Amino acid sequence: MDTFPSDDGTRLAYHRIGNGPPVVCLPGGPLLPSSYLDDLGGLSAYRCLVRLDLRGTGGSAAPADPASYRWDRQVGDVEALRTHLGLDRLDLVGHSAGASLALAYAARHPDRVNSLALVTPSPRPVGVEVTDQDRRALAELRRGEPWFPAASEAFGRIWSGDATEADWTAIEPFSHGRWDAAHEAYCARMDAERDSAVAPLYYAPGAPDPAAVRSALAQLPAPVLLLAGGYDVGLPPTCAADYAKLFPHAQLVVQPGAGHFPWLDDPESFVATMADFLR
User: What is the C-alpha separation between 67 and 80, in angstroms, rounded?
Assistant: First the structure.
């Protein structure tokens, strides 16, 4: 682990894995330590992954101003990392909520982005609509799974506004292409590392309006990869197609049988797609 100071003095940590040209990886959660990304299914065999622990997570210090947890306010952290690494431009990979920060950086510093890979990104910062019907249709594809009845009932309570904390745990299988002991343990580790008091601050009010973000990204000169999971209820493939249209130079890849963490469900397919794009 290495550290560097951000523009407001917060000491941030990052982790290097692998060799070759660096790729800066921004984790989701929101605000999970970057350790859950691991080596992204073996992508480190092709590039050096520079995993940033966002402020207040992993080895990074908590900021003096809690308002700076908001996704768009962490752009300065990514820029400070670029300067610290001595890079003119960045290859950026953002997963889930981490893609929101990657988009904010690209919108503010389009000339400093060499390439942008969005892995099952959150639709929130760009206002792509994902309806309950979109999610229901995708969830129905899993009807044959043994966990489906309980997870489907929990989804119903969430949609009706009557959810309990247990219901959010019960729907976790919908975020994975397969649900087994390994994936269940993976989710348990993430849940244990999640700071429920801080996570809501990432999407706190006051961030840029989606229309403004979309307008900025419409001029982005860098190539963009949007990698969606065929089973990801967070961003169903039909909605991912609308998302990809926001960029002038975007490629949409839907990984069949994958959920919200595609490098877990089919590492070989994920790494092949990412390595080809980053090449």
Answer: 18
Classify 58 as helix, strand or coil. coil
Question: How many structural domains are present in the chain?
Answer: 1
Q: How far apart are CA 51 and CA 17, in angstroms?
A: 8
| Whole-number average pLDDT of the chain | 95
Question: What is the rounded CA–CA span in Å between residue 72 and residue 256?
Answer: 31
Q: Which domain holds residue 124?
A: 2-131+199-278
User: Does 132 have pLDDT greater than 90?
Assistant: no
Q: Do 96 and 120 form a contact (C-beta atoms < 8 A)?
A: yes
Is the pLDDT at 160 greater than 90, yes or no? no
Cis peptide before 27 (omega within 30 of 0): no
pLDDT digits (tens, 9 = 90+) for 144-158: 999 999 999 998 898
> In the structure encoding, which two tokens stand for residue 107, read together?
């919108």
The answer to whether 120 and 211 have CB atoms below 8 angstroms apart is no
Residue 11: what are its φ and ψ, rounded to 5°? Answer: -85, 120
Residue 116: φ, ψ to 5°: -135, 115
Identify which of 30, 54, 27, 22 has the alpha carbon closest to the alpha carbon of residue 38. 27
E-only strand ranges, the chain: 2-5, 11-17, 22-26, 48-53, 90-95, 113-119, 224-229, 250-255
CATH classification at residue 76 = 3.40.50.1820
Using CA atoms, how far residue 165 sits from 144, 202, 278, in Å, is 25, 20, 39
Full-prediction pTM beyond 0.70?
Answer: yes
Q: What is the mean pLDDT of residues 231-236?
A: 94
**d(Cα 146, Cα 100) in Å, to the nearest integer?**
34
* Per-residue confidence (pLDDT) for residue 209, from 0 to 100: 94
